[in-house]
Amino acid sequence: MDAPILEMKSITKEFPGVKALDNVTFQVIKGEIHCLVGENGAGKSTLMKVLSGVYPYGKYTGDIVFDGNVQQFNNIRDSEEAGIAIIYQELALIPDLTVYENIFLGHEVQENGLINWNETIKQATQMLKKVGLDVNPAAKIKDLGVGQQQLVEIAKALSKNVKLLILDEPTSSLNETDVDNLFVLLRELKKQGVTCVLITHKLKEVIDISDSVTVLRDGQTICTLDASKGEVTENALVKHMVGREIDNIYPPRENKASDEVLLEVKNWTAVDPMLGREILHDVNFNVKRGEIVGFAGLMGSGRTELAKSIFGNPDNYQVEGDIFVKGEKKVFKHSQDAIKAGLAYVTEDRKGDGLILIQDIKQNISLANLQEIAHRSVVDDNAEIRVAMNYKDSLSIKTPSVEQKVENLSGGNQQKVSLAKWLFVKPDLLILDEPTRGIDVGAKFEIYTIMNDLVQQGMSIIMISSELPEVLGMSDRVYVVSEGRITGELPIEEATQEKIMHLATTTH
Amino acid sequence: MSFVQDLQKVLKENIREYGMFIALFVIIAFFGFTTDGIFVSARNISNLLNQTGYIAVLGVGMTLVIVIRHIDLSVGFLAGFLGAIAAIAMEFWGLPVWVVIPLTLVLGTFAGAITAFLVAKMNIPAFVATLAGWLIYRGAILVVTESTGTIIISNDAFNAIGNGYIPDLPFLANFMPGTHKLTILLGIIATILYVISAIRDRNAKKSYDFEVLPQEIFALQLVFVSALFVGITWLLSGYNGLSWTLVVVLVVTIIYDFVANKTVLGRHIYAVGGNPDAAELSGIDVSKITYAVFMSMGALTALSGILFASRLQSATTTAGTLFELDAIAAAFVGGVSVSGGVGKVTGAIVGALVMMSLTNGMNLMGIGISYQYIVRGAVLVAAVIFDVATRNQGK
User: Fold this and answer.
1) How far apart are CA A209 and CA B348, in angstroms?
2) Contact A370 B285 (CB under 8 A)
3) What is the nearest CA distance from B185 to chain A, expressed in angstroms?
4) In which domain, by residue range, is B51 found?
5) What is the ipTM for the molecules in this complex?
6) Count of CB atoms within 10 A of residue B181's CB?
7) Contact A205, A171 (CB under 8 A)
């Protein structure tokens, strides 16, 4: 067995209240392609941030041995100097600069403080040749495709004499040809002695390219599999990724879904004009009255985009397809129209587009339905307080007063305020986007109980969730989304973590 | 807790709100002292309030513009341009004043709609769109006054807006001579209304078990504000009484304060400022709110132009120069937040008073214009530093 280029020993990283990494061991052999896999939140990104110095030495416990030496990185520059380069999912290139400017950004070819542009272009051309990218080095980044941009990132890493190249979800925005090209290049680099770590969700790719695989789950190393021994199979990967016991934190509920179809979406397609490509492809689904429908999938699979494009389309996607509410065809030009039709959408990003943090609880709760507590457009302050206090009691929002600013509340209580705001519009259908992200187990249980109460009262719920146990524990029916497509529909009796994971990693 | 401890706690928690009142008080005391009392004489205070009028109404509109995270640089020359249009309409077209004033307000609103169109529909940053407006309206003033130069306004009713005072009660002519009885009467009514509404508000809050000011502090606040009302009333009544300018400013303030705090529209404006994405998803049409705010800014700009032209009794080629910066300064001194969503229209009135007091006081002290600019700039920076530093204090 060859010598390891990287050893991370007993790495533990704690955030307030959570152990993100718990005694993780991660070993990469020199010259191999090593895949790092795991569910969302398993700790992959945190581990890479520890390695690259984003979390500096001293903010974690454990040892990093790279290239035979114990390393103490204080920032990204330190790790780059040691020969580690990370290429993130969101590329860190500057769109309006040229290819060669980007490649040498931060380590310009200079003499006496002046940049030698001729030498820069010459070296950039060599780098581009090395990664097999045939573009003019003077072209601007924004005129390149995503796949080409990724190769520029790799060229940039190579220009810094990288020994260990880490790619975080490199294929998530690439088409098939680009993926093939990338893999050819990675194999080529391997021959030249560059070691590569690949973080990915797509099991097909893992099987295709990896020499070995490390599986993380809940902040712990589960196992390392060796491809040459035939250990890397789809079934083995899925089993290790999801093989956790489902805790009994889901309150029981009878399935009382009626046959009445409340919402039906047909042939729904959306193009994001910013990305210039289709992000939702021919999506069809329905929701019945009194039903909780789970939307499972990996992060970035298009579920939030689906919900937003239906809920008044605030991001101005070009959408096609039909929405029927209670059998009636509807067109939602603005979230106003969707609210009027009986829909409500509790966003994934509470702080970003859910709540107004600088305002107090009562103002946040009343915001989407001010007309209800206004007479001739003058808000009745007392009615507003009564409404807020009702929800404070019924959802047990823990706060000294409804005049408390929302930014001072814990994540769980913020989520309850968000929920209260949308319950106050008295919807027929509640869309919950990652309803329990970032909140503790106790608050989760409370949210689940509220959801059960709501459907018992005849409301319908769409629950978008990346946590498989939650999907299985709460849904009556599950749709699985992958790359903007619905890849499967499962009644809850037939749904298992393994089946959902297979469908969620299905690629076209 | 003792009274003093209570007072300290209340002051600390509400330092943001009380800060500018304290600043205004310090400035008045300072100039009162350095000018041997001339600054606080009835004549000077009355003059100061009238001078503040055209900036105060701009500050009110600007506050809402900044609350929704935009800016309007065009208001200065737009005010000058609309003042010139009003003068031309009266002097050359012979239109009566009761047509000219509404016409000017409509034109201002329309100009605001154009800005809103550029910002909300064409997605041009407000800074750029209104900088273009700044240039265009500056040119427009020169165009319309090219042949005439300064236009003298001869209409007495129009000129009274900037120079006149409300009439006194005729049947009390012999009672308390030398004072303005109607002004005193209005001042007393306003004080009573304030006390009643403050007590009502406190009782309502108490009934919901909300935190209210301790009894003694609340009483102190009532006494202090009432004394301020009565004091200003007494001063003004000793010198011609309430001016029409002040009436206009008070009406604008009351309307805007009501709309901002009590109506659905006001709530939507602050929601858009606090988090436009969340507001949009909550069913609020952000683009409509943008239109509403810029159109109101336009209307207030027209009002400002009328006040200024009326005060000078003429329309000049340089009218409106630097108004926009005074208005922006008034809004920031008044506590509007740079990051949007926070700011009171009443704050802008106090802010405008602070800035105008500085100018007026330094004039009386005989300080040159060059140093005046430097002092006002320093005060503006201090106000914003204070705002940023106290942002996370208290509630």
Assistant:
1) 65
2) no
3) 30
4) 3-164+243-389
5) 0.86
6) 18
7) yes
Determine how β-strand A114-115 pairs with β-strand A164-168. unpaired
With contacts defined as CB-CB under 8 Å, which chain A residues touch B211?
401, 403
What tokens were used for A251? Answer: 């309150």
Helices (H), B68-214: 75-91, 97-116, 126-145, 156-163, 181-207
Nearest chain A Cα distance for residue B270, angstroms = 9
Q: Which helix (H) or strand (E) segment is B26 a member of?
A: helix B15-34
Measured CA to CA, the distance from residue A207 to residue A227 in angstroms comes to: 8
Domain containing residue B79: CATH number:
1.10.3470
A4-83+163-242 topology per CATH: Rossmann fold (3.40.50)
For residue B204, the chain A residues in CB contact (below 8 A) are 381-382
Yes or no: say if A293 and A479 are a contact pair by the CB < 8 Å rule: yes
How distant is the Cα of A430 from the closest Cα of chain B, in angstroms?
Answer: 13
Give dist(CA B72, CA B85) in Å, integer.
21
List chain A pLDDT tens, one digit each, 508 residues: 578 899 999 999 887 656 788 899 999 999 899 999 887 667 888 898 899 888 888 888 999 999 888 888 998 888 888 899 988 877 788 888 999 999 998 888 888 888 889 899 999 999 898 888 888 999 998 888 878 888 898 898 888 888 999 998 887 767 777 888 889 889 988 888 889 999 887 788 888 899 999 998 888 898 898 888 888 888 888 888 877 554 567 888 877 778 899 999 999 999 988 877 889 999 999 999 999 999 998 877 899 999 999 999 988 899 999 999 999 999 999 999 999 999 999 998 888 889 999 999 999 999 999 999 999 999 998 899 999 999 999 998 888 889 888 988 877 889 999 999 999 999 999 999 999 877 766 778 889 999 999 999 999 999 999 888 889 999 999 999 998 999 999 999 999 988 998 898 877 6
| Extents of the domains making up chain A | 4-83+163-242, 94-160, 256-342+427-508, 357-425
Counting the structural domains of chain B, the total is 1
Q: Are A170 and A145 in contact (CB under 8 A)?
A: no
Nearest residue to A441 (alpha-carbon basis) of A216, A218, A255, A290: A218
Q: Is B210's CB within 8 Å of A403's CB? A: yes
Q: Residue B6 CB: number of other CB atoms within 10 A?
A: 16
Query: Positive or negative CA dihedral for A97, A101, A107, A108?
Result: negative
Classified as helix, coil or strand, B54 is helix
B232 inside domain: no
Taking an 8 Å cut-off on Cβ atoms, the answer to whether B283 and A336 are in contact is: yes
For A221, B39, B79, B289, B340, the CA distances from B119, given in Å and listed in that order, are 52, 43, 20, 12, 16
Residue of B nearest to A313 (CA): B281
Whether B341 and A356 lie within 8 Å, measured CB to CB? yes
Residue numbers of B between 124 and 183 with CB closer than 8 Å to A: none
CB-CB contact of B115 with B133 (8 Å): yes
The one-letter amino acid code at A371 reads Q
CATH homologous superfamily, domain A256-342+427-508: P-loop containing nucleotide triphosphate hydrolases (3.40.50.300)
A363 interfacial to chain B (CB closer than 8 Å): yes
Q: Does B202 touch chain A (CB under 8 A)?
A: no
Residue B131 located in a structural domain:
yes
- Residue B75 belongs to a domain: yes
Q: Do B264 and A336 touch (CB under 8 A)?
A: no
